[in-house]
Design goal:
The chain is an alpha/beta fold and 583 residues long. The protein has helices at residues 3-11, 13-45, 50-99, 102-106, 110-152, 154-163, 165-201, 203-208, 212-264, 270-311, 371-376, 401-406, 422-426, 435-444, 448-453, 471-484, 501-514, 527-530, 550-556, 559-579; strands spanning 333-342, 345-355, 360-364, 386-391, 394-395, 408-411, 489-493, 519-523, 535-540, 543-548. The chain has 20 helices and 10 strands. The protein is elongated and about 120 Å long. Bound molecules: adenosine-5'-triphosphate (ATP) and magnesium ion.
Length: 583
């Protein structure tokens, strides 16, 4: 069994033990039933009075009442504790995923993570709840019944104990097959969830490219495979249950045949025979359950294994031993001979860059040149494969991660909004959100004028991923979110690409005001965004190919000067286009 699961079970051992004791007590009382029946039958045979029969009936009712109450608390204890463990595992699973590094999520499908959290976890719960409950109960019931039966007749008991387990055995033999089939059902379900989830996230693209029929068909194919696998399970299942009934019937026949003879021969009384039939009845369900439970356990363990696969992932980016605090960050950033590769493909190499505290550096370069990768190294979203990144002169790997990230305000290239209010989105990184701070940030990001037009102002809910905002509004909301934290280092990754040049200029002017004493790292494809930076670096193919100020770079020629000329030309063309008469 998974050591992790064992740990949860051990933590709740007390509830299980109490449940087990209650279950055992109820089993003993339950098994007294056939005994009372026997006494009654023997009394009838001996010509008992009606009043004594009523007494037996009353005892039977009392017994059943007691069993009912005991079983109620038995189920409450074991099923209840299984729900508590399910709850704990779900919390731990989520917390664990939160700790994992960004890289993990890039090669794991969200739908798959969801399936494990929902479907696999509930399979585990069925194992540690009903599974364990019925398993222990069957063992106890069989042991007690066997004791009572042995006290009556050895041969008859042996017959029963040979035939009855065939019922469980059916399940145990077919179990591994069902188990394999079930696993493949589960896998397919993961695939379906992942597919649906991705489809809904990308619904705009699906619609824009009129891919609904294609997506529907692709989904139907997956779903068909799912039902095919499910039907395979049903086929095995279908063979299973009738076979078990057959064995139960067989046990009854054997009992009738052998027991009947014993009664005729006078070896046992009619009452004892009835008592035997009683045990057969009482044991029928537990025997069926035993097989079912073995199957539940197999499924539960398989599902726990799938959860363990995720739990076993170690976060790659963690606090170092003796992590350093960063109480008063200045905001100096330095790259020393930094190289980086994603799974072996080199993206950055030999990056040397010094950004003194309070200055602005701009990064330009062709698409795919490694700009986003470069800035992702500063908050340790990824880790350099060579060299080191320093903040305030200390390797970022030596800081407490929360301290490091707290001093950085980052606007990623693809902005993300949560399905919450605009205000909550802006205040996302704040420990104590307050309205003035949110407003101030929105003003700096030039979002405030737009907010004034929103129906509920800052309380306007922006929809999943912020779908109800325009691209430019989303970008400005993301800038406001970064600025609201009052960061020592502000990183804008192409964060002004969706706003017009006038708004851009306004935002940059505002930013220069608040960021006068802070460090800014700005990635852009537009010369207008970067020209005022203290330092501009040009990245090409993962290497810094040029560096300087706007003026020196222009004078030097090369990539930057080319880019400038091209954009100048475009602007002129646009201008002449506007002036041209409409044909
Ligand atoms: N998660 C990833 N896994 C593997 N390769 C990646 C990953 N992210 C980026 N890359 C690759 O790394 C290179 C640099 O990507 P990066 O996003 O840093 O470029 P960029 O300069 O920001 O481009 P753009 O201007 O288009 O935003 C690209 O070749 C890209 O394909
Ligand atoms: Mg990028």
């Amino acid at each position: 069994m998974s050591p992790r699961l064992r740990k949860y079970l051990r933590r709740h051992a007390r509830s299980y033990v109490i449940g087990f004791l209650l279950g055992t007590a109820s089993a003993v009382l339950l098994m007294l039933g056939p005994l009372v029946l026997r006494l009654a039958v023997d009394a009838i045979a001996a010509g008992a009075a009606l009043s004594s029969l009523l007494r037996y009936a009353a005892v039977l009712v009392a017994l059943n009442l007691a069993v009912w109450i005991l079983r109620y608390y038995w189920r409450m204890h074991i099923l209840g504790v299984s729900r508590v463990i399910e709850y704990e595992i779900r919390n731990d699973y989520f917390a664990h995923l939160q700790r994992l590094h960004v890289g993990f999520f890039q090669h794991t499908r969200t739908g798959d993570l969801m399936t494990r959290a929902v479907s696999d976890l509930s399979t585990v719960q069925r194992f540690i709840g009903p599974g364990i409950m019925h398993f222990t109960s069957t063992l106890v019931l069989t042991a007690i019944a066997a004791g009572f039966m042995l006290a009556i007749d050895l041969t008859l008991t042996l017959y029963i104990l040979v035939v009855l387990p065939l019922v469980s055995l059916t399940f145990i033999v077919l179990g591994p097959l069902i188990h394999r089939q079930y696993e493949s059902v589960q896998e397919q379900f993961s695939v379906i969830s992942a597919q649906a989830q991705e489809n809904f996230s990308g619904i705009r693209v699906v619609k824009a490219f009129a891919q609904e029929p294609h997506e529907t068909e692709a989904f139907a194919v997956l779903n068909r495979e799912y039902i095919r696998r499910n039907l395979a399970v049903i086929k095995t299942d279908g063979a299973l249950w009738p076979l078990m009934s057959f064995f139960l019937g067989l046990a009854a026949v054997v009992l009738l045949w052998q027991g009947g003879q014993a009664v005729i021969a006078g070896r046992i009384t009619l009452g004892q025979f009835v008592q035997f039939i009683g045990y057969l009845g009482q044991l029928a369900w537990p025997m069926v359950a035993l097989g079912w439970v073995v199957n539940l356990m197999q499924r539960g363990l398989a599902s726990m294994k799938r959860l363990d696969e995720i739990f076993m992932q170690r976060p790659r980016i963690v606090d170092p031993a003796g992590a350093q605090a960063l109480p008063a960050p200045r905001g100096e950033v330095e790259f020393r001979r930094v190289g980086f590769s994603y799974n072996g493909s080199q993206v950055l190499s030999g990056i040397d860059l010094h950004v003194p505290a309070g200055t602005t550096v701009a990064i330009v370069g062709p698409t795919g040149s490694g700009k986003s990768t470069l800035v992702n190294l500063i908050p340790r979203l990824f880790e350099p494969t060579e060299g080191s990144v320093l903040v305030d002169g200390v390797d970022v790997r030596r800081y407490r991660i929360t301290d490091l990230r707290r001093c950085i305000g980052m606007v990623p290239q693809d902005t993300f909004m949560f399905s919450a209010s605009l205000g909550e989105n802006i205040a996302y990184g704040l420990e104590a959100p307050d309205a003035p701070r949110i407003q101030k940030a929105a003003e700096i990001a030039r979002l405030a004028p737009d907010v004034a037009d929103f129906p509920h102002g800052y309380d306007t809910v922006v929809g999943e991923r912020g779908v109800t905002l325009s691209g430019g509004q989303k970008q400005r909301a993301a800038i406001a979110r970064a600025v609201a934290r009052d960061p020592s280092i502000l990183i804008l990754d192409d964060a002004l690409s969706s706003v017009d040049t006038d708004t851009e200029e306004e935002i940059l002017r505002q930013l220069r005001g608040v960021m006068a004493t802070r460090t800014a790292i700005i990635i852009s494809h537009r010369i207008s965004t970067v020209r005022h930076a203290d330092q501009i670096i040009v990245l090409d193919n993962g290497k810094i190919v040029q560096r300087g100020t706007h003026e020196t770079l222009l004078a030097g020629g090369g990539l930057y000067a080319d880019l400038y000329q091209k954009q100048l030309l475009e602007e002129e063309l646009e201008a002449t286009d506007l002036d041209a008469p409409v044909r």
